[in-house]
Structures are given as C-alpha cells and as structure tokens.
Amino acid sequence: MVQRFFLSNFSEFLSNQIITKENNEDTFHHLKNVLRIRLNQQIDLVVNGKVYLAEVINVTNEVIDFKIINKSDKSSELPVQITLIVPFLKNDKTDWFLQKATEMGVTNIILTNFRNSVVKLKDDKKIERFKKIVKAAAEQSKRLIIPDIKYVDSMNKINFLNYETKIIAYEESAKNEEKTNLAIQLNKKNQNVVAVFGPEGGIDQSEIDYLKDNDFTAVGLGPRILRAETAPLYFLSVLSFVYEMS
Question: What CA–CA distances, in Å, run from 171 to 196, 201, 228?
Fold first, then answer.
C-alpha cells in the first residue's frame, strides 16, 4: 500500500518537487529515518486537499527529490463539517478516541472541561502531542485534511454561532427512549454540525440548560449506555450513513 504524508510547507514541492529537512522536518525525518525510503519508491503527498503520487528519484541528508506521477482530486472527506466538543478522558483513552474519530472523518475537535469531568485539563501543553496523533491517523486513513484540535478551558468560551445543527448526546434522552431527535436533526442535511459529548461522570443539568439556551437539541443514541469515548464514534458512524451511504 502506498503511504500518505501531509506537507506543512509545500511551496518547495510544488515548485521544485523536493522536500527539505529544513522546511518539512517531521515528514523528512519519517521518510528518511523511519520509513527508510528508497529510490523509485512511490508515496502520496497531500498538498492543499490534492493528492500527488510521487516517485523518489534522489535522497540526501538534507533533501528528497521526487518525480510527480499524477495528481488526484478524489475526495475521501465527509460532505459535512463536523465539530465534536468532548472532555479529556482518563488514562490513554483520549489518544485512542482522537485516532478513531480522525479515521471516521471528524473535521474539528474541541477538548474542554465539564463540571463532572473525572480528569480536567489545566492547560494546552498536551495539544501538540494530540496533534501528532491526529496527523498520523489522517495519513493512515487516507484523509485529505488533518482535523483541527484545540483546547478551550470552559464550554462557555466556545462560540456556537456559526453552526447550523447543534446536538447534545444526552444519557437521560436515551433512558426516556427518545428515538427521533437525532434523525430529525441530521435529515436536515446541514453542512456545519456540532455535537457535544459529556465526560465519564455524565453531563450536568446546568450544562444541558446552557446548551439548550444556545439552541442545542438533546438526542438519544439508542437504548444502550455508551462510554464517553465511544458515544462520539457512534455519532460519526450515523452521520456517515446519513451523508455518505443513504
């Protein structure tokens, strides 16, 4: 299988068909020292949402030279912008969730603190590591974009104005056998969707009230209680079915 890589600085590739250690250090290091790329080996390089199949023609300690074989505009992205607002999870569950959500097509991930969060982020120092996880998952799953990930310390600092569809996954809705709100919201086929998922300790009623005041709709995700890390993935699966498979 041809491996895929994103270029952070792509002007040198487009103009001279090269990657330099100076301008794309992470990708250069991975290609040369981890993958141990060889002459005539082919890889996919993603530049501005386009995929270039490129063949290696020279490798030095500072530069990798390529020959472009072809360019593809074929999209592997969901036809909807999807933002997930989620808590930081205990142990390594956040790492796992970020990887899987990226594979399933998320556009943006906002990590924030909830009233009942078991573990709370105090700053954004872990975000750089999270970005590396997301980038690797985007390359593995043949994405055309790297999902954006950021930390906002409180939900009331998040701007909800630009979202067309606003959803809260609410355990009480599931317990009350609410079955229609999710389908109603997604069948609108809006192009900018945001969904909020609470922590292991559950989402507090005050947070539900705040979100409803900002035009969010509480929805159930079926009769089973889902873990904090799996509920957003269930939602992404449903969204993929509605927008891509139906």
Answer: 12, 11, 11
Asked whether the CA dihedral 222, 182, 145, 156 is positive or negative, the reply is negative
User: Residue 165 is which amino acid?
Assistant: T
**What is the per-residue pLDDT across 149-170, written as a single tens digit (0 to 9) for each?**
999 989 999 999 999 999 999 8
Read off the tokens for 77: 């992205």
CATH number of 4-72: 2.40.240.20
Are 149 and 132 spatial neighbours (Cβ–Cβ below 8 Å)? no
Side chain identity, residue 43? I
Which single residue is written with the structure tokens 């035009």?
215
- pLDDT tens-digit map of 198-211: 998 889 999 999 99
pTM of the complete model = 0.88
All CATH 3.40.1280.10 domain ranges of the chain, comma separated, are: 81-245
Q: Give the H or E element holding residue 57.
A: strand 50-59
Q: Terminal CA-to-CA distance of the chain, rounded, Å?
A: 29
Q: 148 - beta bridge partners?
A: 108
Cβ neighbour number for residue 40 with a 10 Å cutoff: 9
